[in-house]
Each structure stands twice: as C-alpha cells, then as structure tokens.
Amino acid sequence: MTCPMPLTRTYPLSKPPNHTLPVPRYTATLLSSTTHLHTLYIGLQTHSTSGAITAAAHQLQKHIQFWIDSTPELSHESESPLDLTYERFTLIDHAGGDPAGSKVWVCYQSFTTRGSSPPSPTFPDIDLPSLYKTIPEASRPAIGLWKESFTTPVGRLETNYSGTDYLPGLARIPGVRVAEHELATYWGAARDRIPEAGWDLFPRPDTGGMRTEVGDVDGRGHVFKGTNKANVVHIRSGQWWENCEDEERGAYEGKLEPTLRAGLSYLNSHREESGCMRIRYLRNGEGDEDVRETCGAGFFHNLEDLERWSKTHSSHLKIWRGALAHYKAFPENRRLRTWHEVSVIREGEARWEYMNCKGGTGVMGCVVLEGTPLA
C-alpha cells in the first residue's frame, strides 16, 4: 500500500469472501514521512518533418534534458538524497492531437507537507515560453510544447505490480519499497487499494464536472491553460517483456499487444462514451522498437468511468482475457511484467498547459481551458 489502509471503513471492500490470488501481486510503499506525490509530464510535438524543424526539435529535447539534469534531485549523479526520478518516452500511436513520434518525459517527486496550505514540489517548474524561445523564430510555428502536472495525497493513490524484478513509475523513487498484497484480481480491486476509498466515493462534481465535451480547438498559435474539477483520475499502466524467452515474447507481441493497442485506440476515439480524456501509448526510451517496454498514460473524468470501461466494455475485457490466457500459457517461466499506478486528483491540483499544440492534444477538448495568443 502507498499508505496504511483505514482501520474503519464507511464503505466495505469489494473483495469477495475467501478470495485468493491466482498469482502474487505487489504494491509500492512510499516512505512513512511521505504525504504527497507530484507528477509532471513534459511533451514535445512537431507539425512538420522538414530538416529545420527536426533540428529545432532536437535542440529542444537537449534543453529539456538539461533542465532535468541540472535539477540536482533529478540528476542521478546528485550526491544529495534523492526523492525525485524521471523517465522518457516516444509516442507510438497518434492519439488525438499528439502526433506519433512525439517525445514525452515524466518526473516524479515524493514529499511531505504540513498544515492546510496546498503542497508544492521543491524542484522548479519548467517554463515553456522560455524554452520555446531557445529555438529559431522561423521554426516555432511548427513545434508544440505541453506539460501536465498533478499532486496526489498518498491516500488517493494505488499501485499494482505483477513482479519485483522490474519496477518502473513511482517505484523508481529512492526509498520506495514493494510488498505483497491480496487486493487484486477481482472487479473493484483498484478502488479497494486506494486508502481514502474507505470513506470517500470520489463522486463527480454536482455541476457534472468535465464529462461533457467542449469541442476540440486548434491550439496552434495559442497557449491554453487550465485546471481540474474534483476527482479526475490519472492512470499509467505499463508492460515490460525484455526478459521473455522467444516463445513468450512472440505470444505477447503477436496476441496480447495488438489487443492492448486496440483498447487504447477505442478510448481515444470514443472519449465521450468511455469517459477517457486522453490516453497516450508510449514506448520507453528514444523510440527504438527493440526496447521491449511500453505504457499507456492519461486521464479519465472519474474513477467510475475507468471502472466501468474495465469491467464492462469489450475492448478491455479482451485485454483482461488475453492476459489470463497469457498467464495460463506460461505458468512457471512467465517473464512478462505488467503494472499500473492510479491517482484520484483533488479539485485544482492538476495543471495543464499546451503551447502551439494541435487540437485534441492531451485534455484539450475535454476541459474548458483559457486560451491566449502565443507571444
């Protein structure tokens, strides 16, 4: 668990009586002093494949990486105790406005806050306008930058891992440990693993929140910013098959992965129906297809939307059944590792900013954002 489960619950667990796990499952445990987790995504997209634009995009990648490396707690060479970490990705599939090949970074920070004031990360937030101005002015109209960040109390967070030999995501934060748990492999298990779900149903805002589409807008030439209503959900769900033998690797790449890809495609093409705001399908690293690690990362309007899709829609049921079939086919020597992390975000604790981005990038079209002309 990311924090202790409540001793008393207003709402009972969904775990069936006498339920036993068919396979072990693990959860991440943050340091006991940790009260919050901050997550920051940074994205770079291009609207052209010309040589000049490609060169400008490479320049921006270097500036982003320099920002990460020059933030002491993020740099793996820091001599200070680390409470931050990061990963980088390349977008596999076109997702709304995000072009395939877009570059994405995610940074995690765990920290402690006291009192009632809103928590804030200790590392500086990256300044997109300043970053944008580091490339030639002629290249700027063909490049988009974005960032999505949110802060999560540990009581609104859950994680689930199928093994301990590879632990990405927030489990990379130094000091995090993993432990076996029994709240898995039944419908409602994810909610059961969120400590505050013992007394909070995480309802939609009375106004209807952000469920109604506001219509895609072309963000090019503008900066769009906004924040969230109550109980928006972020999920990152990953797959790692680097250690699989040839037979299992072929089974994953030939059967299970196409099913996963189809499920993510459904979410992005049926946002109003599914309650998904946007899911990006990402390959870890520089985009080399030889890297056998991927993840889906994005936002849902509400935990109920994520649960309904998971439990009832054919696109996810095919993924679930495919995973069970894979587990049965490789009971002893299975090396495929899957995992996910879910955050339920309080009102106003997410921040979205899209600079010169294509319409439909990220949560654009699902959230009312304030737009201003790009300076």
How many domains comprise the coordinates?
1
Low-confidence runs of at least 5 consecutive residues: 74-82, 208-213
**What does the overall shape look like?**
globular
Q: How do the strands line up in the largest sheet?
A: 6-12-9-11-10-3-4-2-5-13-8-14
- The number of helical runs is 7
Structural class: alpha+beta
Strand content: 25-35%
The count of strands amounts to 14
Mean pLDDT: 89
Give a quick account of the main beta sheet: strands, pairing sense, barrel closure. Answer: 12 strands, antiparallel
Q: In whole angstroms, how far apart are the ends?
A: 46 Å
The value of Rg in angstroms is: 20 Å
> SSE order, as H and E?
EEHEEHEEEHEEHHEEHHEEE
Helix proportion? 10-25%
Cofactor: heme b
Protein name: Phenylacetaldoxime dehydratase
GO molecular function: lyase activity; metal ion binding
Keywords: Heme, Iron, Lyase, Metal-binding
